[in-house]
Design goal:
This protein is α/β, with parallel strands linked by helices. It contains ten helices and eight strands. Strands 7-5-6-4-1-2-3-8 form an eight-stranded mixed beta sheet, with helices on both faces. The longest helix is centred in the C-terminal third of the chain and has 34 residues. Bound molecules: uridine-5'-diphosphate and magnesium ion.
């Protein structure tokens, strides 16, 4: 896909050393504190920088806050998406606008400390291409979220051919070289942390303690989390598609024993009984079939959306 030549990330002249990219959805409450801490952290590195705030169709005053930041300080870039695109696409939009030599991906809610930028740059200098934050502890997250996250990463690594580090979000620093390869990946259903792992290069973890959200609530309700998990699995594995083969084998084996049992019963003349077992078998088979159809549907739906080849995001307005 050819990018128009006026696209900012091809502008070589004024390339900052660091681009910070931040997807924001209803984050008006935390954004001022975030900007303050982020800018202090960038200044402490002594390098040039830009901070790209993407408003992902927020319903609150997020865009007004972004505007005000951009007007007050030209180091900020504001991107207003045409509607809510979801975290992964908002982040993709931000990455498309990043011009820096090093790109920091960070959430707006201060769960990932902006101050770690310096340490990440140090690890970079020791030869890494990507430095990703790995959580040693998660403050203020529910028991359910921790257990489901642990189970999810185990399952994903069992299913996927790419090894995707556990306890890792999108908080990472990467070199421009890696970003350029990343921008070539065209998929609509995105699991960005996995996509970056898939790219290869030298990827190094930096351990940190994930903080509590500074304000507001999580923008990932259970429904979005499940969808995100399905995006991850369908993007990195086709193993679920052959589940039918194994389930078919297992059910076939059960059918074999049941057939022997039925024939024996017939010999002894007990053939009228068996309503319960019949119902159980019918329901079991029905649910196995629907389950397998559902799996096929998950892949097929994503294939359909991908075949449309629609743009990943639409920008309404850009400041700076
Ligand atoms: N986010 C977004 N669009 C969405 C949902 C979330 O841009 O539709 C942003 C959100 O503002 C935050 C980041 O993605 O900066 C991560 O979201 P959140 O902190 O709610 O997720 P959690 O940390 O609870 O998993
Ligand atoms: Mg968060």
């Amino acid at each position: 896909m050819a990018m128009p030549s006026a696209t900012p990330n091809t502008d070589e002249k004024a390339r900052p050393a660091i681009s910070v990219v931040v997807p924001c959805y209803n984050e008006a409450e935390v954004l001022p504190t975030f900007c303050e801490r982020m800018i202090a952290s960038c200044r402490a590195t002594g390098r040039s920088f830009e901070i790209i705030l993407v408003n992902d169709g927020s319903g609150d005053a997020t865009w007004q806050v972004v505007r005000a930041q951009c007007i007050a300080d030209p180091a900020f870039v504001g991107i207003d998406l045409s509607r809510n695109h979801g975290h992964q696409l908002a982040l993709t939009a931000a990455l498309h606008h990043a011009r820096g030599e090093f790109i920091l991906v960070i959430d707006a809610d201060l769960q990932d400390p902006p101050e770690l930028l310096r340490e990440m740059l140090q690890v970079m200098e020791e030869g890494a291409d990507v430095v990703f934050g790995q959580r040693t502890r998660r403050e203020g997250e529910t028991w359910f979220k921790k257990v489901s996250a642990a189970a999810f990463y185990r399952t994903l690594n069992y299913l996927a051919d790419t090894s995707i580090p556990a306890d890792t979000g999108d908080f990472r620093l990467m070199r421009r070289r890696v970003l350029e390869e990343f921008l070539r990946l065209p998929e609509q259903s995105r699991f960005i942390r996995g996509m970056v792992s898939w790219l290869g290069f030298r990827q190094v973890p930096l351990l940190y303690e994930r903080q509590e959200r500074a304000a507001g609530t999580s923008k990932y309700p259970l429904r979005k989390m499940i969808r995100f998990a399905l995006d991850a699995v369908t993007s990195f594995s086709t193993k679920p598609l052959i589940a039918a083969t194994y389930l078919g084998g297992a059910v076939g084996l059960m059918a074999f024993f049941l057939a022997i049992y039925s024939i024996v019963q017939w010999f002894f003349g007990h053939t009228v009984q068996g309503w319960t077992s019949l119902i159980v078998v019918v329901l079991l088979l029905g649910s196995v079939q629907l389950f397998v159809l559902g799996i096929i549907g998950e892949y097929l739906g994503r294939l359909t959306m991908q075949a449309k080849n629609r743009p990943l995001f639409i920008v309404r307005e850009r400041i700076n």
